[in-house]
Design a protein that fits this description.
Structural class: alpha/beta
Number of strands: 20
Oligomer: single chain
Largest sheet: 6 strands, mixed
Bound molecules: flavin-adenine dinucleotide
Radius of gyration: 21 Å
Distance between the termini: 29 Å
């Protein structure tokens, strides 16, 4: 892995995205634009993309602290999921069954839309409609698996998913302890950094300007005739609308401190496996793969034949701190390597060549939000809780409609205008989140030991997943 101090060293994806990651020119003095966007990750870039596609005359500037794809967009597991982390039941409790169904329908369409744009804009993001398999590895997970399938059935999406027996699962991938799997054929897999870097080039081709290595240090709301402003050490960006697309990093800006929680997701990656190992594992369909662990795991088979194993579990840091040093948590990375060998015993002495991670934004109610405040001219989309590869596209399209003042099916979705409650102030937040993190790990341990659904199950449901 290249040195962590270089941009290529932040993830295997940035290292292999086929672009030298030389930063684009920074902002060089104050400018006036129509739309100013903080952050060149998927959210900022998808928003710019749809705005410029619809109105090529718009002046759009994106201001990025590092380089396009520096954040979660250049580091994630490459799952392009057809659902959110918050369950359909939870969305229905907040917004009713019909709107929960509409949101789920929009998420299915979103996976198609990302594939469509990659093809039409010639972004070689290795997009592949491979589906996802959520494997139950212990009896307590089998119960959760059936409940998931039943929930999608109840909402009328029975034809978009199904349960596979142990034998059917084994024919696709041989996972130690498998009891069967929940199959979601709509999921896709992609190369995250190729997508974000390709999107950045596409936005520039459409006329957008991306200023890299330029940190936004303040956000001034508009109102009373004044325009909203992104302030940087290199000048101000004044706009009709300012879009805050900094996801977990938004917590560094005073007005957004408690809007999301930076939750670290960490990844380890093996060297390319031998043909004999692949013959033993199977996984020819390269599906997105996970179990029903409450404390989250996710796997992918890379194009060059490696296994990526990701998971949560790195400790929350007091004050929502985000630092490069937290990307590599030795204990969590070692735990993930152990999990990978447990899933696939044939990994034995296989080398793990890469280990990285990064923060993702988790709102207090697990529900993403896409908001546009006309009075201040400030808009934002955030809080995808680890499902932002697809959700950021939906958010970008929704923001483009909201900014244009256009009513559409997207602006009627529950995420449009949703406002999550703020996280607790410290030290309550640190105490609460650390407690929940430990509780989730203990629920998994208890379930694995006893085979039974853990007591405290409602907690697991509240922390609804995948
Ligand atoms: C390890 C990991 C694995 C994940 N796996 C998956 C997965 O498999 N599937 C999935 O759907 N989701 C996954 N996610 C989540 C997903 O990657 C994110 O939800 C998504 O990338 C969010 O995109 P974004 O553009 O909103 O945020 P980001 O990609 O984080 O981009 C925000 C950008 O804003 C910039 N920025 C922040 N503050 C400032 C400032 N003050 N001034 C200027 N610029 C600023 C940052 O530098 C960054 O480039 C994962 C996340 C991580 C960390």
């Amino acid at each position: 892995m290249p040195p962590a101090s270089t941009y290529a060293g932040y993830s295997f994806w940035l290292e292999t995205c086929g672009d030298d990651l030389t930063p684009r020119p920074a902002l060089d003095g104050s400018i006036d634009v129509d739309v100013a966007i903080l952050g060149a990750g998927y959210t900022g870039l998808w928003t710019a993309y749809y705005l410029l596609k619809r109105d090529p005359s718009l002046k759009v500037a994106i201001v990025e602290r590092k380089i396009a794809g520096f954040g979660a967009s250049g580091r994630n597991g490459g799952w392009c999921s057809s659902k959110l982390n918050v369950s359909l039941d939870a969305v229905a409790r907040m917004y009713g069954r019909d709107r929960a169904r509409a949101l789920q329908g929009a998420l299915y369409d979103t996976v198609d839309e990302i594939g469509r744009v990659c093809a039409s804009e010639r972004i070689d993001a290795e997009f592949a409609r491979v589906g996802a398999l959520f494997v139950a590895r212990f009896p307590y997970q089998a119960g959760m698996m059936r409940e998931y399938a039943e929930m999608f059935e109840r909402f009328g999406f029975g034809d978009r998913q199904g349960l596979l027996s142990r034998e059917e699962t084994d024919r696709r991938v041989r996972v130690r302890g498998s009891l069967g799997a929940w199959h979601c054929p709509q999921y896709a897999r992609l190369h995250p950094a190729r997508l974000v870097r390709g999107l950045a080039r596409t936005v520039e081709r459409l006329g957008g300007r991306i200023c890299e290595e330029t940190e936004v240090t303040g956000v001034r709301p508009g109102g009373g005739g004044a325009r909203p402003v992104l302030s940087t050490g290199r000048g101000d960006v004044r706009a009709r609308t300012v879009v805050l697309a900094g996801e977990a990093y938004l917590t560094r800006l005073r007005p957004c401190r408690r809007s999301v929680l930076p939750a670290y997701s960490l990844i380890v990656l093996t060297e390319p496996l031998s043909d004999a190992q692949w013959a033993e594992i199977g996984w020819q369909g390269r599906e997105c793969l996970a179990s029903f662990r409450i404390s989250i795991d996710y796997l992918a088979r890379t194009a060059d034949g490696r296994i990526l194993f990701g998971g949560r579990g790195a400790p929350y840091r007091f004050g929502s701190a985000i630092e490069d040093a937290f990307d590599r948590d030795a204990e969590t990375h070692e735990m993930l390597r152990g999990f990978a060998r447990d899933w696939f015993p044939c990994l034995g002495n296989t080398r793990f060549t890469h280990a990285w991670g990064g923060p993702l934004g988790m709102p207090r109610d697990w529900m993403p939000s896409v908001v546009c405040d006309r009075a201040t001219g400030i808009a934002s989309a955030r809080g995808y809780t680890g499902h932002g590869v697809s959700a950021s596209n939906l958010a970008g399209r929704t923001l483009a409609d909201l900014l244009a003042g256009r009513q559409s099916a997207l602006t009627e979705l529950p995420i449009a205008g949703h406002r999550s409650p703020p996280w607790e102030p410290e030290p309550l937040r640190w105490l609460g989140v650390r407690y929940v993190q430990r509780a989730m790990a203990r629920l998994d341990e208890a379930g694995e030991k006893t085979g039974r659904a853990p007591t405290g199950r409602t907690l697991a449901e509240r922390l609804s997943r995948h």
